[in-house]
Amino acid sequence: MEDTLEARLNAFFDFKMSGMFVCMVAEVLNTSKLEQCRIDVKPIVNHEYKDSTVVEYPTILSVPVQFPSSSTSALTFPINQGDNVLLVFSQKGLDVFKSGATSAHDPIDMRSFDKRDAIAIPCVNPFSKSINDPVKRTLTHNVDDMVMTHNIGKDNECEVRLTSGGEVKVTGVHTKISDSLATEGGVVVGTGATGSFTTPLGQVVTVSDGIITNIF
């Protein structure tokens, strides 16, 4: 390579950029502290140097997980060993933040875009493992619907589905409502309904396995 100022500047820039972490995919290695929203991960694309030497990245410990949430509301779900997550790396060190600081504070050092300051966003997958593939689902799936699903591909797969046609469907092995259900329209149930309801005249009707057993 020609030894010019431009060549030296380019080499220096490449060297500095090689130590800067911005975004990469990682494999989840440990979820034992998921109740604290922290996991251990390992980047899956190895680092290759200009001399063709290839090295694996080390495991990154205690990475914060980003769930869609606020201080009062959250959507949480299991993260499993072997899942893939997207890592983004903070411009400043996160040590003080991880220890509990949630307002403006001084960093403990001058590091920037360091591998120790990753945040994990679940979940990113190879195209072949897309969870939006209807073949991967136990229940019938339409990619035009908005769906919240659990136990994907298992016999006990369950979901809340907002269809493109405007329907809201709740499907599971057992669907349980633990409080009163209020509706401005009628309620249609399948064969084998069990429970009780009050008629507009104040009568309480009890039904067992689809058969009325008492009216009073």
Question: What topology does this entry show?
Answer:
Elements: H1 5-18, E1 23-30, E2 38-43, E3 47-48, E4 54-55, E5 60-64, E6 84-89, H2 95-98, E7 118-122, E8 146-150, E9 158-162, E10 168-171, E11 195-198, E12 204-208, E13 211-215
Antiparallel strand pairs: 1-2, 1-6, 2-5, 3-4, 6-7, 8-9, 9-10, 11-12, 12-13
Account of the 3D structure:
The protein is built from two helices and 13 strands, in the order H-E-E-E-E-E-E-H-E-E-E-E-E-E-E. Strands 5-2-1-6-7 form a five-stranded antiparallel sheet, with no helix packed on it. A three-stranded antiparallel sheet has the order 8-9-10, with no helix packed on it. Strand 9 and strand 10 (168-171) form a beta hairpin. It has helices spanning 5-18, 95-98; strands at 23-30, 38-43, 47-48, 54-55, 60-64, 84-89, 118-122, 146-150, 158-162, 168-171, 195-198, 204-208, 211-215. The chain is elongated. It folds into three domains: 1-124, Gp5 N-terminal domain (OB fold (Dihydrolipoamide Acetyltransferase, E2P)), CATH 2.40.50.230; 131-176, no CATH class; 189-216, no CATH class. With 216 residues, the protein is mainly beta. 8% of the residues lie in helices and 29% in strands. The N and C termini lie far apart (96 Å). The model has no long low-confidence stretch (mean pLDDT 91).
